[in-house]
Amino acid sequence: MIIDADAHVVETEHTWDFLDESEKKFRPQLFSSTDNPNMQYWFVEGKSVGFRPPTLTEQELIALSKQTGRELQTAPEARELRDVELRLQHMNKLGIDVQILFNTMWIARVADKAEAEIALCKSWNRWMAEVWKQGNNRLRWSCVVPAMTLSEAIEQMRYAKENGAVAVSLRPFEDNRHLVDPYFYPIYEEATRLNLVVAVHIANGSPQLLDQFKPRYDRMGGFAQFRIPTVITCLSLMMSDVPATFTKLRWAFVEASAQWVPWVVKEAIRRTGTKGFPKLPFKEFNIYVTTETNDDSIPTLRAKSTPSTSSAPTIWSPIRSRKRYWTTTRAGFTRSRLHTKS
What we know:
- It is built from twelve helices and 14 strands.
- The longest helix has 21 residues, at 114-134.
- Helix 4 runs parallel beside helix 5 (150-162), helix 5 (150-162) packs parallel to helix 6 (185-194) and helix 10 runs parallel beside helix 12.
- The chain has a nine-stranded mixed β-sheet with strand order 13-12-11-10-7-6-5-1-14. It has a three-stranded antiparallel β-sheet with strand order 2-3-4, with no helix packed on it. A two-stranded antiparallel ribbon has the order 8-9.
- It is an alpha/beta fold.
- The chain starts with a strand and ends with a strand.
């Protein structure tokens, strides 16, 4: 089975058609930039919560494909899931059996009020449930949850599980809380019960950290704002009580590359100062990490992350080379084109 493990979906106006009548006051509004009409921004209650990737014309996609060397010509109806059947046809063309859909808008905080966050998450999850029902079980997804309201987060996780979700998305930082905070334990307990993966996609739900790490004098983009918090969270997880408390819970760290894995493993082993720390913490703690095609090869990363005195775990190899793919492995590395044993 071939699984695309991080197939983003771009939110559209239709995403918010699932709001309850009493929640329509929180409906995000889309505005275009006066400087660049192709750039659009979502606003919630008058506040910008992020940009919407532009919908490029066919000619623009052809030009971009030539520029990047990647095949990017896909119909907007398929990219935005306005036509689920067209999306499935495109998957057939690529040889993909299943896609795991991730949000685009939740890369940062989407609401300041708990009730607004509840409404937006609920609408997004209902949208994905509709897509899953139309997708012949080929379009699975990672749900978004209102982290400010744990009781509602758990209810939405249950709904998501019943409607095709395979993971729950959490950002490395949710406001002023880090993911190892015991505050999140009810979510982890429920994720374990539901057999949902906790997916830590590159993101940052802390407005303070986003502002602190905003590039002002350089061109490093969102590296410090989004990728570094993901790496920090992985190290923090391994050095916390969370893995021992939730021994069956699986973790996925998505879209942050994997070059940092050997460094983080080395730091975790060195900083624990205990002989009882596992020599293969990613395997022991059920942690999976996505790689990129310009990373070192998976065997190389595994070797760098494995003490010389211990045996390396079994690994499944990628079956095809593409610009962006992941392969699932028993060692805790994944690429976006998964090869799994069925």
